[in-house]
Amino acid sequence: MKCRLPLSPQAFPRVALPFLLLVVACATGGGGADSSTPHPDSGVHDTGVRDSGTGVDASGCPASCPVGQTCLDGMCRSVPCGPDRACDFGQSCCDGSCAALPTDPANCGACGRACGDRGTTCEAGQCRCAGGPACLAGSACCDSGCADVMNDAANCGACGMACAAGQVCDGGTCAASPCVPACATGETCDTTTSTCKCGSGGRCAAGASCCSDTCASLATSTTHCGSCGHACTGVGEVCLAGSCTTDVPCSPSCATGETCVLGVCKCGSGSSCGGSSRCCSGTCTNVSGSDVGNCGACGRTCGGSESCCTGACLNTTIDSNNCGSCGHSCSGTADGCSGGSCTCGGSGECVVACLLGACFPI
């Protein structure tokens, strides 16, 4: 601050020495040790606190707060987002705080849309519980998934609050079970009827277990193989004796020529053969028919003068029961076959009857 004299010095030829000293002091800056270098106004409120050399000033804040924060009440605090401070790319401003809507459980898909008890994670803007969908109203998201804390003995009243063996969860409180004998694992005791239930059904049959409110055979179920929730996920895997495997035997054993694929007999790429058919070179063939290349068995070929008659190779040129063709018998009007024709006594076939090698009328 500079002082100005109200009147010129000539107006005070006999002014008192003390007053002149005061004037000189005003002209030189008030008598204090004024810095020769001026300090421009930074626009920031000066707290009068200087860095002590430790990186933390006397207010408790670091010498400089991180980007997006300011020193308030001795602490670095986030600056609320709003018109004057935008959030980072991919985030939205929710009530003064930046939030990633696709993944924030407190703002899942929209500001203020909290997952709460319905899920522990937010994926693509949707609440999720233990890798599955969000829980319905009345259920809570526990480590094992959604649970009815009012009736689930493993999560009675709250997640992880398991009842003692033989107890049931009745209205969120563990109590003695009215079901005798005690219900199997996964089943619940209906306190009204004193009966065990698996989901909405009754008690599981012998050899079955209650898994996810469904009765399942742990020995053969590909969804619950060996234990509840253990699924066979490998290509071609099935559940055999409680283990996931691709080496599945066929029972009964497959016929000759067929192959066993995951417990199913196949002929080539098709199904197994039935009846009088056999699997010959990957094709179901009737070996009991007239196939001279597979007569009676796969690959059995009849000779040049033979025919395949109901699975047997026969010479139809001399066989009196299959003379000339399969099933043509010479009995009655002939007593032999020659050259594929019926004969009587070495001559032609009789019209009426062949007796003692000769044709006779009736």
Characterization of the model:
By secondary structure, the chain is mainly beta. Among the domains are: 92-133, no CATH class; 316-360, no CATH class. It contains one helix and 29 strands. The protein has one helix at residues 17-27, and strands spanning 69-72, 75-78, 92-94, 97-99, 121-123, 126-129, 132-133, 140-142, 145-147, 167-170, 173-176, 188-190, 195-197, 209-211, 214-216, 238-240, 243-245, 259-261, 264-267, 270-271, 277-280, 283-286, 306-309, 312-315, 336-338, 341-344, 347-348, 353-355, 358-360. The chain has a three-stranded antiparallel sheet, with no helix packed on it. A three-stranded antiparallel sheet has the order 18-19-20, with no helix packed on it. The chain has a three-stranded antiparallel sheet with strand order 25-26-27, with no helix packed on it. Strand 3 and strand 4 form a beta hairpin.
List low-pLDDT spans. 1-54
Order of helices and strands: HEEEEEEEEEEEEEEEEEEEEEEEEEEEEE
Q: How are the strands of the largest sheet arranged?
A: 5-6-7
Shape: elongated
Chain oligomer state? single chain
Helix content estimate: under 10%
- Count the helices. How many? 1
The termini sit apart by 163 Å
Main sheet: strands, sense, barrel: 3 strands, antiparallel
Overall average pLDDT: 80
Strand tally: 29
What share of the residues does DSSP label as strand, in percent?
Answer: 25-35%
Structure at a glance:
The chain is mainly beta. The chain has 1 helix and 29 strands.
Compile the SSE list and pairings.
Blueprint: H1 17-27, E1 69-72, E2 75-78, E3 92-94, E4 97-99, E5 121-123, E6 126-129, E7 132-133, E8 140-142, E9 145-147, E10 167-170, E11 173-176, E12 188-190, E13 195-197, E14 209-211, E15 214-216, E16 238-240, E17 243-245, E18 259-261, E19 264-267, E20 270-271, E21 277-280, E22 283-286, E23 306-309, E24 312-315, E25 336-338, E26 341-344, E27 347-348, E28 353-355, E29 358-360
Antiparallel strand pairs: 1-2, 3-4, 5-6, 6-7, 8-9, 10-11, 12-13, 14-15, 16-17, 18-19, 19-20, 21-22, 23-24, 25-26, 26-27, 28-29
